[in-house]
């Protein structure tokens, strides 16, 4: 064992750095989904579409502004602003026009409404952005790289992936935790997450909370997409690929638990990058193995609370 | 593997023709009012980066051919089917087009899985089927098909040509890593490459074999590992968005300074990458149809195709455009040959299919011959990525052209068996510099 | 409504046979629809208990690959159908022992995880499965009879139709048995079931194993019909499609899945034929319209028409 660490310790260190950046991105997408699920009790399949639209919009807006002389440093705030814009526009539209009609319906119907929306938005993306890969990487290029020592060698990492992605993820986590614990609106959201019936009985305007939460969740999905756009080429189908992993994160984390989502994302990000170094063929199934193991030990998810059994 | 068609097969086919009613071969066929083709291609999902340009090309070529009198005087009409929903949908659509729409020929498909699922239908429904893009060697090596023809190269030449180029360009490399998409082409192309490499240059050490999930949007972990391993050569047969993402992330971290990259399907991603493609790496195009081809056989036709595509769609043509064009020209040549053989009468489905065996048809760059097993022999051109002022993206320089026949497994041999027989002295004799 | 269900079933069967006789390509499409209908009855069973499996494509793919792998060795359709059903049932038992401990989102997402693991295995074990290239299934003898292609296709169509009737009838009996009634109990008040001495998990497990077998049978028929199997069969969107069909058809009776499957396949074909690059949008829109304006699905619509006539 000790010998193995001597041989592979350095590689493990690299895997840790890679895992952090990938965990950051997983977290940003999954935490919005988890938040929405906690409050609305809807597994939003269209969260993946919002991710994709966020990515495409950020790239388009970035390309448009760069062409009009936007300085390179401004491309990072642009990413965040375009995500907020996408969430603020699409979130209320989807919640008001669609989801509000089905809150009273069965879980499966709610799931399917978002599945239908996902199918529609897949084609909408194609109509708006075409099928050729789109990429806009000013943010990554402007930040440059940093050489990480590796034995006698060194490995260049992009500052964007090493610092910006995990950084924004941590800021989001801390900000969310503060918002949910310390502000009135946040506490109302927590109250609705914990016990919807009791919360509404106490006079909380559930409709407003739902709208707010969903819009917020949509912004987070779009933010995940926007932040992935500087490093990834955008093609049709990226939403479908991304959302599956987020599903696994939500179930593993526990309903509506943001700390749970953070810890799960970290485990999955690290697990995947370690797999790439030592057993690349396992990389794809690592998140599911983690999910199954966690649920075996904690059936309500990592941070989930056991719901009171209704009699 | 035996000879392509025994007499018994021919008799059985003829006999079946008499026994079976409708759609059938030996019945005198009427000259149709329009020549209908059904085209299967990706219109959604990640592979639509190839599918949509091919559809545009098909529509453009149909217009052009119809404007100049159609095929044997008959105008063409194309209908399109999306490959993305999966095999059961695609097989159903193939049947609908043949049995209900009455198409005269099928053009299929981009995905090898689709081709493997649909090619048997060409025999069952006895309908001329042109495989216009898929690359799997399994189609013509594991079976013989009377109605199916592939009008472009396939996996074996498309992998062997870049391998030969590498062996000529950097004969002293000792280590290699592979990063391919995790699906049939990613796996097959690596097996073909490794078999050929072990035969012609034994002893190369494979330091990493990575097959990230199809559709991945982040390769930073894989790139870190490659940076740490410092292999002499990195092979990737990835394409589309994934190749763009990989190259962008790799170039930013200067992976291209540590290892020579070999990218056999690079061409289609070059316009998207623009100036971010590093120079001096080996790039291929699944054929010989580079936009900067130094000496196309028919320059007027070549420029005509490139320019009219650019004018109409405001983008550069990529290889699926050329593959679609090859299928269309093959169709025209084959059908007109069958009509001529009939002295102007309209050929039956079988007569039409038979006209394609051994058919040679001109492409703007060269000539493609359909072998007796139905496989087309398309030349391959490989070169080093470079920039010039004619194109806003990377194009090859120091190009080497490999004749299709030289880099394809002979009729009746399996690719992997044939690749094992290659000797190191093949490297020097293969291919010739052009340009 | 329940009384006229058998009559309606005969009517639907007659319509399908007429369509299959007039157009050979419809025979193919309708065989697929019947196969998916059989699998969707399994979804319906679980829906009765209020649980949505978002991974039942696993059992379809398992049944299909069972046929593809074993056809060269035990090449008889009847034997293979039995093997696919038993195999899928055993797999369902193993997975069911684990997943029936969970409810709602955990149940749905664990099923999703299982199907995605299976999907990855089909891709990873390339040397056995040929990955995304898939495996070809040749025409096989049926009950010892070697058939030509057209006769074979008719037989498979007939078998699918026969199985649809037999299985539909059996599930109908099951649902009105105490075991079936207990399923509905899981949905409303699970704790009460246990107070009455009914082991809820056992009830759900029995239904789960049955649904897995139905999936395996459906998958086997799909493999025998399309005669080429690929990993896409077990991708998460295929699971979504099954739930889609269940809701489109309506969760009321066992006829719903077949109505839904036939409608789904036909809508998809006509959408693909008229708008090849926007078929997803059309399917999604149809689903939304059904959920929003025709709750109860096609079966519910039929029920309302019948009622209107009776009055």
Separation of the first and last Cα atoms of chain C: 13 Å
What fraction of residues of chain A sit in β-strands?
under 5%
Report the biggest beta sheet of chain C as strand number plus sense, adding barrel if it closes: 2 strands, antiparallel
Radius of gyration of chain A: 20 Å
Structure summary, number of beta strands of chain A = 2
Percent in strands of chain C: under 5%
Q: Which stretches of chain A are poorly predicted, pLDDT < 50 over at least 5 residues?
A: none
Helix-strand pattern of chain A, N to C?
HHHHHEEHHHHHHH
Q: Average pLDDT of chain A, to the nearest integer? A: 88
**Helical/strand content category of chain A:** mainly alpha
Give keywords:
A: mainly alpha, ABC transporter involved in vitamin B12 uptake, BtuC, two-stranded antiparallel ribbon, C: 311 residues, mainly alpha
Write up this protein.
The complex is a heterotrimer of chains A (311), B (435) and C (311). Chain A has 311 residues and is mainly alpha-helical. Chain A is built from twelve helices and two strands, in the order H-H-H-H-H-E-E-H-H-H-H-H-H-H. Chain A has a single domain (26-297), classed as Orthogonal Bundle (ABC transporter involved in vitamin B12 uptake, BtuC), CATH 1.10.3470. In chain A, helix 1 (2-40) packs across helix 6 and helix 2 (47-67) crosses helix 3 (75-97). Chain A starts with a helix and ends in a 14-residue tail after the last helix. Chain B is 43% helix and 16% strand. Chain B has helices spanning 7-19, 48-67, 87-100, 112-124, 138-142, 155-169, 184-200, 220-229, 240-252, 255-258, 270-273, 299-313, 319-341, 349-356, 404-407, 415-420, 426-429; strands at residues 35-41, 76-82, 105-108, 129-131, 148-150, 175-179, 205-210, 233-235, 260-263, 282-283, 360-362, 367-370, 376-377, 380-386, 395-402, 432-433. In chain B, the strands form three sheets. Chain B has an eight-stranded mixed β-sheet with strand order 7-6-8-9-10-14-15-16. A five-stranded parallel β-sheet of chain B has the order 2-1-3-4-5, sandwiched between helices. In chain B, helix 7 links the parallel strand 6 and strand 7 (205-210). The relative contact order of chain B is 0.14. With 311 residues, chain C is an all-alpha fold. Chain C has one domain (5-235). Chain C has helices at residues 5-22, 24-48, 57-70, 77-99, 104-124, 126-129, 149-176, 178-195, 200-226, 236-249, 256-274, 279-293, 297-310, and strands at 135-136, 228-229. Chain C has a two-stranded antiparallel sheet. The radius of gyration of chain C is 19 Å and the shape is globular. The two termini of chain C are 13 Å apart. The mean pLDDT of chain C is 88. Chains in contact: A-B, A-C, B-C. Chains A and C meet through helix 4, helix 10 and helix 12 of A and helix 5, helix 8, helix 10 and helix 12 of C.
